[in-house]
Give the backbone structure.
Amino acid sequence: MREKKWIDCPICGAKKSMRHERGLHEDFELPEYPALRVPKLDGQFCSVCGEGFWSLKSERNIAERVAEHMAAVDATRVVAAELASVQEAAQRMRVSVQGVHKMMKEGRLRFVVAGGRRLPLRSDLPEARSAGAKWA
Ligand SMILES: [Zn+2]
């Protein structure tokens, strides 16, 4: 996907107000998780209204960091019975094992890190009978 270069602000309509900015950070308040700050972000922001967009790279970075943050916290409070193997998750969602790893990395499937391996949360998987429907 190609990055769109903004010149005029699409939010407030100011002309030639969009600037590329680096070295930004964003604080995330996630329910039931400690606050998370994601540093080293960049994006295009309006010098008039302050609204703007993260770059695609920063959006991916945020999704990965939030997923890792939640996994680290969940690892301290999730019991083994709530975890599925990557193979089981792949079967339930009818995707490849690689697909499951990709979804965890991109923050589309919650997981915890146990014994150095990423294990999907069972509660995030579709029921065996309706497998595929949720992810179609
Ligand atoms: Zn603006």
Remarks:
- The domain at 1-58 is CATH 3.10.20 (Ubiquitin-like (UB roll)).
- The two ends are 21 Å apart (CA to CA).
